[in-house]
Design the sequence.
DNA sequence: CACCGCTAAACTGTCGACAATTCGACGGTC
DNA sequence: GACCGTCGAATTGTCGACAGTTTAGCGGTG
């Protein structure tokens, strides 16, 4: 998820890379976090020199970090004007969900053909984790693990490029949703709504999985977009 | 297509932006072109200082250009090692086509519901252009206009994010295919194979369009991947 | 009071320089 | 002959500086 360890999911490598000492990546992570917890709000200008001063570095790595976040869709650039935190509107979130649905349904369909019982068990365990976190009231962590579940599902589709796209989309959605300031649904409901997906996977029922997953995703999409429209007019 | 004019397809804007004086973007275009016509070959190292010398600039904009191309998947970075032209293998091209199929089918399905007769006519005219270019033997241009046709189709789906992704994918495919050094099929066949898509669009037959488009794309995918496996072993 | 142009401050794009790291060649060792 | 460590050249990551542009504030004008 962070930019520090790009290869967080090494395809069977024994050791993951050591955390990069790269200044730019660390700065990008900081900015990402700042966007996530609202210290940077959408539309706000991000000044290279100011960030550089605050971080005690020169402008060069700050610039690279912002360009990285730009490529991930979290920062927008107006040439000679500077960098700004990307401000999502409801239509854009709707587009993002549309894209996510397209990718995830595709990956899930491919996954059904390749999935093993062990894989299904891992996914089921992840759902149990979601329920537990719902009980404990760890909402932030639950959101993170919810994305992780869907990421696992995408990964089982076997197309790593799709997984990378999913990561980008997830980051954007989290940034967009963060500024709602509240969750879009009851955590327990969310956790439970994954059960039907596990069922479909156990039976390797592609059609059913597609149907259920689509409903699952459109539920979230509908809630989020509706909330967004209310907040922003 | 180029990086110089990001808004090359302004959604109804009267004037396109003036060509950016941005050094980084122009450098990126040069490098992109160099990859396209084989002056830079996959796997080759790209040295910042050398590029900067050749272009008569400092390293800073070169670095930004390469990072931009990295975000588009044409350049890969090994930290503290430098930049390299991304070397595609057959499996990766297969993944890219898989992704393209997923996106384009989705966009096409959405397009059917929104498309006007004028839109269909524009697409049909584009197919005629493909045929004409096939006759004239302008293969390079035909390839470009072929992508343009599919881009138009994606755009009619209404999700601009999908279009941007398509652009990225197209760039990667062209870079990957460029090093085959030859076309993967008869230009006239390629042009004609678009006719069935127009037919399906005229009848607003989503199911048929999906079927035909899928076949259309898998044909290209099959040819390219097969050729690639032969060349590279 | 709204609008316009001017001036100063702030900022971006670009540049050249330096330290730390990496790469390649060389010679030494088994 | 293959392997290992060393040394010098080349390269990356980072830094501070400068020119041109943008922005914000201010006073003038209708």
Sequence:
């Amino acid at each position: 998820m962070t930019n520090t360890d790009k290869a967080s999911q090494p395809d069977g490598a024994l050791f993951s890379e050591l955390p990069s000492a790269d200044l730019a990546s660390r700065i990008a992570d900081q900015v990402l976090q700042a966007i996530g917890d609202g210290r940077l709000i959408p539309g706000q200008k991000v000044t290279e020199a100011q960030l550089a001063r605050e971080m005690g570095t020169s402008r060069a790595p700050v610039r690279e970090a912002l360009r990285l976040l730009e490529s991930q869709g979290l920062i927008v650039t107006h040439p000679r004007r500077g960098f700004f935190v990307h401000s999502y509107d409801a239509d854009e979130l709707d587009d993002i969900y549309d894209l996510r649905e397209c990718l995830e349904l595709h990956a899930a369909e491919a996954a059904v053909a390749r999935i093993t019982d062990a894989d299904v068990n891992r996914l089921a365990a992840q759902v149990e984790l979601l329920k537990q976190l719902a009980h404990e009231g760890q909402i932030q962590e639950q959101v993170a693990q919810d994305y992780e579940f869907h990421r696992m599902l995408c990964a089982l589709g076997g197309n790593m490029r799709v997984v990378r796209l999913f990561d980008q989309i997830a980051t954007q959605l989290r940034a967009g949703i963060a500024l709602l300031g509240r969750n879009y649904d009851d955590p327990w409901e969310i956790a439970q709504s994954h059960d039907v997906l596990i069922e479909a996977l156990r039976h390797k029922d592609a059609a059913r999985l597609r149907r259920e997953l689509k409903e699952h995703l459109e539920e979230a999409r509908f809630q989020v977009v509706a909330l967004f429209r209310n907040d922003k007019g």
Summary: Chain A touches chain B through 22 residues (CB under 8 Å). Confidence is low (pLDDT under 50) at residues 5-11 of chain A.
